[in-house]
Amino acid sequence: MREVAVQGIGQTPVEEHWDRSLRDLATEAGLAAMRDAGMDRIDAVFVGNMLSGQVARQENVGALVADWMGQRGAEGFKVEAACASGAAAFRAAYLAVASGALDAVLAVGVEKMTETSGAETTAALATAADADYEGMQGVTFVGLNALIMQRYLFEFGWKHTDFGAFSINAHANGARNPNARLREPITERDYARARMICEPINLLDASPIGDGAAAVLLLPADKVKSGPRPKILVAGSAAASDSVAIHDRKDPMFLSAAFSSAHKAYDQAGVTPSQIDFFELHDAFSILSALSLEACGFAERGQGPRLALDGAIRLDGKLPICTQGGLKARGHPVGATGIYQIVEVAQQLRGEAGDNQLSKARIGMAQNIGGSGASIFTHILKAN
Amino acid sequence: MREVAVQGIGQTPVEEHWDRSLRDLATEAGLAAMRDAGMDRIDAVFVGNMLSGQVARQENVGALVADWMGQRGAEGFKVEAACASGAAAFRAAYLAVASGALDAVLAVGVEKMTETSGAETTAALATAADADYEGMQGVTFVGLNALIMQRYLFEFGWKHTDFGAFSINAHANGARNPNARLREPITERDYARARMICEPINLLDASPIGDGAAAVLLLPADKVKSGPRPKILVAGSAAASDSVAIHDRKDPMFLSAAFSSAHKAYDQAGVTPSQIDFFELHDAFSILSALSLEACGFAERGQGPRLALDGAIRLDGKLPICTQGGLKARGHPVGATGIYQIVEVAQQLRGEAGDNQLSKARIGMAQNIGGSGASIFTHILKAN
């Protein structure tokens, strides 16, 4: 298996891009990644996207984006795994380059969510859940996560306000990220007073939707010339699934697919959790931050919030998370999120993370979750 | 790059499966492929599907199907490339096994199209075209293909009835395939009198929609024990794209992505077109059969219909096509079609094609087309 490097990165700001189409956003990010890598021709474009068919009435976006980028002829397809579509496209691209069949593969994540009504977008997002056994009950995606959080508070004895530190950290970092959707720091008071969405999830527990695109260009590591920048290697790539319907899981408060994919990635990379310098996790809801930290071995069961309350997750902490704002503040254009995470890991490893640059960033991890724990992809990148 | 074998195959009949859900159909085909391969555990499930979000309001089908098959934990995602979603999933599975990262990967193609109204299904299929530049004109997918066929008749001097031989061949073979949606042979008279859909495409030029699922289980070739059956190797796997909008192409009557992907596949397999024993091509409309034969080097430009009129495409001809009925008679459950094609190639190579068995079937080719030529995947399989 060939070693694979992340050689180019690109992103658009996450915003309400009223004047930009899906293909425009993907093209801007894709061309930025190609420029960053100094490449003008690629073999393939794999597009991570969840909602283009339902929202933009556009499928076949692999060929569409390839063409719009000036890469007509390059092969392409769309990869979908609900909110983990971005990382799924990255994994498909990684496997393609690792196989030796393709050399230069672009993984683009793109989503456009703000042109439809809130009700339409909410209904489209609910297709990440089990349509026959959850959706038909009328439960929304935030509703499902609220059930998990409610149970977690009860089982482990936390108060809702104990989760505020996750959101405060994300907003603090997002405020310093020029590509973030929400650039306002928030306080404990803001968090405590935020409008309730679906008890116990309030507005500041939930990540905002948005339009945006991010892209990474993958190359075989041995074809990357050494230069002033560190070479960014994909040291671990793994994925796992759990039941889509949350009521079907043995324990709805344990992300078994996060556990499984993280441990496969640790094995491949030859590292332990204590060697991970920072972690771009999937904080679609603050409860997911806690569950992800626990499943990946950074906290004991039921103790995830402790890392936030102790400040361990801050830029100067033991395990910084969501260093550019995470889903909560950078924003969550669902199919693009997994690629934004990889871009942000690469920025840190290169020392290009601007005002959010970590002092120590040699091994970074990204984890993207589709459907409240059903499809989970974990990647570990190393600076070389 | 590891050599990859198609070790298990499975399919459901293509029908109006009123009593079956998307996950049920995928599971039936997937478990059949696992039984056929003698496996009870797989690493990954890649699902080829175009319309689940729009029609069944269900995304995240990779994890969903893995779970329903009893493979909870196995990684998965959905792959979409319009009507070529099936072959795109097969290619993703091929690359994953070839890379060495995964051993047993199931590619399942599934589509459920008959529960929605005709107008809804037509609108959903139109998302294979360019939404901003074609769809917004109100043109349907059959309308776009009709424009191509009209021009082809004019440019190359064929009569509409010259295309009847494609449909007659497909129906003759479909009548002997127990999994085919249309099992009635048709005559020249039937073809000439068929109801016009969008001039010059009549009902018997067009493939029917349907519900169905097909699956193939891929393994590294060196892990396949030799037995009474021939080993089926993936000798060539390639893909290419063209502009999605047909008016943007240099020549709307030339499938440049078919040419490019076929020639890459020939090179990889080390064969010439004359060595291909049979060809499962993408006869969504009869015009596409002609264009595919021309682009892949089996006929001169503008001479595709000649192969049909001369009988070369029949089971006893020089280049049998659509040996189990093709899209026209087996049916075209869009995201599943590409996997049905691979299953049918494997059946021929194994000598398990029943009443449609070819006398010579050592090297077979399958080509799956998404969006009237935008996303094209070509695979060459060899019996070993």
Describe the fold and architecture:
By secondary structure, chain A is an alpha/beta fold. Chain A has two domains: 4-117 and 210-223, Thiolase/Chalcone synthase (Peroxisomal Thiolase, Chain A, domain 1); 139-207 and 231-383, Thiolase/Chalcone synthase (Peroxisomal Thiolase, Chain A, domain 1, 3-Layer(aba) Sandwich), CATH 3.40.47. The first copy, chain A, contains 13 helices and eleven strands. Chain A has helices spanning 22-37, 52-56, 61-68, 85-99, 118-125, 141-156, 164-174, 188-193, 256-269, 286-295, 304-309, 326-329, 334-350, and strands spanning 4-11, 44-48, 75-80, 105-111, 196-198, 201-202, 212-220, 232-241, 278-280, 363-370, 375-383. The interface between A and B is large, with 71 and 71 residues.
Main attributes of the structure:
5-stranded mixed beta sheet, alpha/beta, globular, 4-stranded mixed beta sheet, 2 domains, homodimer, 384 residues, Peroxisomal Thiolase, Chain A, domain 1, 11 strands, 35% helix
Q: Helical amount among residues of chain A, as a percent range?
A: 25-40%
> What is the mean predicted local confidence, pLDDT of chain A?
97
Q: Work out the largest interface and the residue count of each chain.
A: A-B, 71 and 71 residues
CATH topology of the largest domain in chain A: Peroxisomal Thiolase, Chain A, domain 1
Distance between the termini of chain A: 18 Å
Classified in CATH, the superfamily of the largest domain in chain A is Thiolase/Chalcone synthase
Helical element count of chain A? 13
> Could you say which overall geometry of chain A the principal axes of the C-alpha atoms support?
globular
| Counted beta strands of chain A | 11
Whole-number total of structural domains of chain A: 2
Low-confidence stretches of chain A: none
Strand order of the largest sheet of chain A: 1-7-4-2-3
What would you say the CATH architecture of the largest domain in chain A is?
3-Layer(aba) Sandwich
Radius of gyration of chain A: 19 Å
**CATH level-1 class of the largest domain in chain A:** Alpha Beta
| Helix/sheet category of chain A | alpha/beta
Which oligomeric state applies? homodimer
